[in-house]
Fold this sequence. Notes:
- By secondary structure, the protein is of the alpha+beta class.
- The protein has helices at residues 8-21, 72-84; strands at residues 50-58, 63-68, 90-98.
- The protein has a domain at 50-98.
- The protein contains two helices and three strands, in the order H-E-E-H-E.
- The longest helix is centred in the first third of the chain and has 14 residues, at 8-21.
- The model has no long low-confidence stretch (mean pLDDT 89).
Amino acid sequence: MARRVRSIREMRALHEAAEARGLIRRPEPGPRPAAPPTERRPKPVEKSRMKVVWAVCDIGGRTVATFDYPRKAEAEALAAQLKAQGKGTHFVRSVKEPM
């Protein structure tokens, strides 16, 4: 057979009575230890600004000449001129370089 459920008020009264007699002692809170200092993340380094240029390259990928972005026609003309002179195969590609 199940026992009767105690009410919270009754249990609180029993606890306070035991506390008054000195049977229950609460530990006094001491000073809290200092928290270790947190490590701050360094500020991210700003990436340098880049500009796009047209590079005339040989078949090995080495840059022969560079032109500003609006001067693509001149870059293609140089690639065609080098190819016509028999200096090997040249092509034009866009390359990003720091400003």
